[in-house]
Amino acid sequence: MDWPSGRTAFVTGGASGIGLGIAKALARAGANVALVDRDIGKAREEASRIATDAAKVFAIELDISDDEAWAGAADQAEEALGPVSLLFNNAGVGGSDGHPADIAPTVWRWVFSVNTHAQFYGVRTFLPRFEKRGGKAHIVNTASMAGLVPMAESPIYSASKFASVGLSLSLREKFQGSDIGVSVLCPGTINTSLPRTAAKALSLVTGKDETLSLEDAEAWLAHGANPDDLGIIVLDAIRRRQFFILTHSDWAPLTQSIHDEISGTFRGIEKDLGPDLLARAIIAGKESAVSAR
Asked: 68-98 pLDDT, tens per residue?
């Protein structure tokens, strides 16, 4: 059997969009899936639809921003489906933030609580279980191309997704060479319900009707890629222990320009401040790890 057949996955935001696309791919591959979402009715409906003879799918209600609720959700999943060995920190919120001076601190905290803090809660909950049990495990954090390319009109969203990429890079370094794999999913435009969901949630946070650009956003996303196709890409990537999971090559020049700017700035340093022992130690450690393989 191909991994992860017979294993159990925990997928947040699993009742729709990218999360559901990932869950479908996992179920078809024979993995049991904990379909985790705030909308338990939708999660139960989708769980019954995508379950197969070889894969059980179990719906769990969870507010991922509630750190104290994670352990109970993890226990529910493992009681119903067996030990979890795949964590998909997928759920997120988005939308256009506007001018930084006009963004309320409550909105900033809300976006980070879902897009960033919740991924840490997921890692904090499941990593000890992975380490205690041993064996093959994998973590996938869903970021965005906005986590690699800054978006001028979405400072909160972009900042939260950069944080997701940073967390994932750190985890990869920590568990490199172990049985715990790490990936970060940075999709481009995907056809999901995120704009309407985000607008509704944002209106609850701010007390305002945040629908001004909703129709434009939905029309734009309607041209995005199919989440089911993305699920297949994600499954293939984790089987190969691929770190960056990317979807649209149109973004390549934008990411390259950022790296070119960094490299060019280093080359243009006129007065170096001298040796940095931390950087040299990290480089030496990486060289040692490569030579030991």
From this structure: 999 999 999 999 999 999 999 999 987 567 7
Give catalytic residue positions.
157
The SS3 call for residue 10 is strand
- Beta-strand relationship, 8-12 and 180-186: unpaired
The phi and psi torsions of 139 (rounded to 5 degrees) equal -120, 130
DSSP-based three-state secondary structure for 56: coil
Instruction: List pLDDT tens digits, range 183-214.
Output: 999 998 877 655 444 444 444 444 555 544 55
Its domain, for residue 40, covers 8-252
CB distance 12 to 61 below 8 Å: no
Whether 290 is in a domain gets the answer: no
Per the DSSP assignment, residues forming a β-bridge with 8 are 32, 84
Contact 86, 62 (CB under 8 A): no
Contact 184, 143 (CB under 8 A): yes
Please tell me the total count of domains within the chain: 1
Cβ contact 148:258 at 8 Å: yes
State the pTM of this model: 0.88
The DSSP annotation for 225-278 comes to BPHHHHHHHHHHHHHTT-SEEE--GGGHHHHHHHHHHHHHHHHT-SS-----HH
Q: Is 199 exposed, middle or buried (0-12, 13-18, 19+ CB in 10 A)?
A: buried
What confidence score (pLDDT) does residue 271 get? 86
The mean-pLDDT minimum among 120-124, 180-184, 188-192, 255-259 falls in 188-192
CATH number of the domain enclosing 245: 3.40.50.720
Kindly state whether residue 97 falls inside one of the protein's structural domains. Answer: yes
| DSSP-derived secondary structure letter, 115 | I
Q: Which residues are paired to 57 by β-bridges?
A: 33
Tell me if 32 sits within 8 A of 82, measured CB to CB: yes
